[in-house]
């Protein structure tokens, strides 16, 4: 997506949907709040890093003045805070704050490295705030400040401007963020790409465009994966799978302070598959995972992966939220999901746009009128059902509390929406939340406040576009 100048409407609206969460700037700027243990560790670590960097870079500063003056005019001004203390914004991690908002419970603040470098050009100041690195990805948080209102910053991404140790690699991933006001946007982007084996490596982010505004915002910094690697637990099951369309090897399972990942490699059985958006080499690429108590792991995002259609091989990473403890085994149910809609454009070597069409299948919508009588039961076909226990509107938001029963409760619970009598979907204000660890199948979802004078329908679907293959279920034993 980031390589193209345009994205299709569905993708664009999805990004906007993910960014409808209310956000208070005071959450980032309130310096009076109590400093917990993790924050104290972060202060100590980043103070040490800052002192070491300053001692090492004194000579460079004195010998690079002429070059720095040139850079001011050619690529923008690299800003610095006036005092040493202000160089350490460790009390309010943007990366942690955003991930918390979207339900990700990894220890981002504890393991992130403070970068806090800013470049201003053409009325836009970009700040790289923090970075985390592990063996498969980078997570980078950033701030965009503009001197005029700019729309659609939620589709801005860093991945297309990234170099690691001077080299450009293909990348993919996920990003989300929030407008603080009309002129300020904060984001956190997870970029899956080729990460060097060395514990520490150099990163260049040379941005040339922000929302159709051309400019030069060049950043250079380093990242270390040493600390997060030391705190991660790695299992190598050496397990082989025979799936309908492919043969798969489970190479490793990693429990890290920020997430849980299953890394696989394989090859497709159909030698006639050609490169394209409709897949065919590894279609059972959505794995629903359960721990040894039967609780579903929360899926985190796309993860990384690549296909070589010449060799008919692929690699992939299945990503889940951080686990509170390491289970004895994981139970996996492979699924094949046919998108309910989509498409887009791509550019050929000459810059000509070409349409992209994908195979789609729209599931049947199942809904009921919200009449104030609970529970409301919504069938989800073969998957199970949702039970709406309560809907309450207060403080300019509508809170829905519900239970998911069936084959994969969290997977099912994600698909719950409300629409008005004209068919317009109500905006989602907060990400789906589990009630607690003791009630993993109880959920809360927050929407824009409903008008008491209007009629609404709450709905889900029957998952006709999902092949939930319990017959392919298998266990991954987690033995050292």
UniProtKB/TrEMBL annotation:
Q: What are the leading ranks of the lineage?
A: Bacteria, Bacillati, Bacillota, Clostridia, Eubacteriales
- Which part of the chain is the DUF5643 domain? 232-357
Is Protein biosynthesis given among the entry's keywords?
no
Spell out the InterPro entries in the cross-references. Answer: DUF4179, DUF5643
- Protein name from the UniProt record: DUF4179 domain-containing protein
By its UniProt entry, which Pfam families does this protein fall under? DUF4179, DUF5643
Tell me the ranges covered by the DUF4179 domain, including all copies: 57-145
Point out the coiled-coil segments of this chain: 14-57
Which key words tag this protein in UniProt? Coiled coil, Membrane, Transmembrane, Transmembrane helix
Transmembrane parts of this sequence = 62-85
Q: Which domain of life is it from?
A: Bacteria
The organism is: Clostridium botulinum CFSAN001627
